[in-house]
């Protein structure tokens, strides 16, 4: 029969998906699939959109701020109290004017990050590492494939934005040529509408590009987390423990359990044997137990040790093959015997008590 070998174990090729443990460790280090362009694109789009929603509101507060300067404070005496009053009023109006924009930008920025990576707080990326200031490592990052991809993304982004701006302004060429003939208010209104339209178009374009960038970042992230079969085996050993060490621990636990069991053999009333292959130590105390209890049991070598300890402490040993086998198979150490064995065990204990009574 031909021996089948898994060549991946030798080549260490990373073809396996990352385990949950590795994903969790990467997340703790701040390594997640995230596009930095996505929050910026959403903030730009919704900021321009908010100008449409709160344009009239912002206009009123801006006019109120200008009126306050020219009508209320222009002819007032320049004193500390008047200057403070003017400053407070202007700051209040300014906050009311730009407050909605800042609030929307903050909410959209937090939401865009949360949708990508969920809630995450880690200080690992802020940790001082010498590799970050190593010139060789810096040169590698500068000329890496990732740097080339980022450069191409920037070129593509600027090219598409340039095309959007060019086509929009070209379409408005006739109106732009007539701006010099329009009143100042109308010219300002038209310029503002074109600017808002450009902002929304650019925002939408950047959102589309950012979604593709996020998909690319996710692909790169999954690729960087790939593991070889040997990596998975090593991780399993670290998580579950080395099989050799676990075997030694289990062996030590068995020895300790055997030692504790042997310490209970001298407390038994009788040892029921097979006679050579099985041995079960029984005890019954009417004041403390509802039924006879198995203190120790074993086969072959352990059965021999039980009988030796019983002999050293003068415990009566009785041969009863069916009962010894049944007790060993059905009753665990420390458990009481089942009801269907009461009669057989009672006869054994009655004989033991009778022998002990004659001896006394």
Q: What does this protein look like?
A:
The protein has 360 residues and is mainly alpha-helical. The chain is built from 13 helices and four strands. The chain has helices at residues 8-11, 20-28, 37-72, 80-117, 135-142, 145-171, 173-177, 184-225, 229-240, 243-264, 300-312, 321-330, 342-359; strands at residues 270-273, 278-283, 293-299, 316-319. Strands 3-2-1-4 form a four-stranded mixed sheet, sandwiched between helices. The chain is elongated. Mean pLDDT is 79; it is low at 1-11. Pfam families: Bac_export_2. It is found in: Cell membrane. Keywords: Bacterial flagellum biogenesis, Bacterial flagellum protein export, Cell membrane, Cell projection, Cilium, Flagellum, Membrane, Protein transport, Transmembrane, Transmembrane helix, Transport. Required for formation of the rod structure in the basal body of the flagellar apparatus. Together with FliI and FliH, may constitute the export apparatus of flagellin. It comes from Paenibacillus gyeongsangnamensis.
């Amino acid at each position: 029969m031909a021996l089948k070998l898994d060549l991946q174990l030798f080549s260490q090729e990373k073809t396996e998906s990352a385990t949950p443990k590795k994903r969790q460790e990467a997340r703790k280090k701040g390594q997640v699939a995230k596009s930095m362009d996505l929050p910026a694109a959403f903030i730009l789009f919704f900021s321009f959109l908010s100008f449409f929603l709160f344009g009239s509101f912002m206009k009123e507060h801006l006019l109120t701020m200008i009126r306050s300067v020219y009508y209320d404070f222009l002819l007032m005496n320049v004193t500390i109290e008047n200057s403070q009053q003017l400053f407070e009023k202007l700051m209040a109006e300014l906050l009311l004017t730009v407050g909605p924009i800042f609030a929307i930008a903050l909410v959209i920025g937090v939401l865009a990050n949360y949708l990508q990576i969920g809630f995450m707080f880690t200080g690992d990326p802020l940790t001082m590492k010498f590799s970050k200031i190593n010139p060789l490592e810096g040169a590698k990052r500068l000329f890496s494939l990732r740097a080339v991809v980022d450069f191409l993304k920037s070129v593509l982004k600027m090219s598409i934005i340039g095309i959007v701006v060019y086509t929009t302004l070209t379409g408005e060429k006739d109106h732009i040529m007539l701006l010099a003939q329009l009143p100042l208010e109308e010219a300002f209104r038209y310029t503002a509408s074109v600017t808002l339209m450009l902002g929304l178009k650019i925002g939408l374009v950047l959102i589309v590009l950012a979604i593709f960038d996020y998909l690319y970042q996710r692909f790169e992230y999954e690729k960087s987390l790939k593991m070889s079969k040997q990596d998975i085996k090593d991780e399993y050993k670290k998580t579950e423990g080395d099989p050799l060490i676990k075997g030694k621990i289990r062996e030590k636990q068995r020895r300790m359990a055997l030692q504790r069991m042997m310490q209970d053999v001298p407390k038994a009333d009788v040892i029921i044997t097979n006679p050579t292959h099985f041995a079960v130590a029984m005890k019954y105390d009417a004041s403390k137990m509802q039924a006879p209890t198995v203190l120790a049991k074993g086969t072959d070598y352990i059965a021999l040790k039980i009988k030796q300890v019983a002999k050293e402490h003068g415990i009566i040993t009785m041969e009863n093959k069916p009962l010894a086998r049944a007790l060993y198979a059905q009753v665990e150490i420390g458990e009481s015997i089942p009801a269907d064995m009461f009669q057989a065990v009672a006869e054994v204990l009655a004989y033991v008590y009778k022998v002990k009574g004659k001896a006394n």
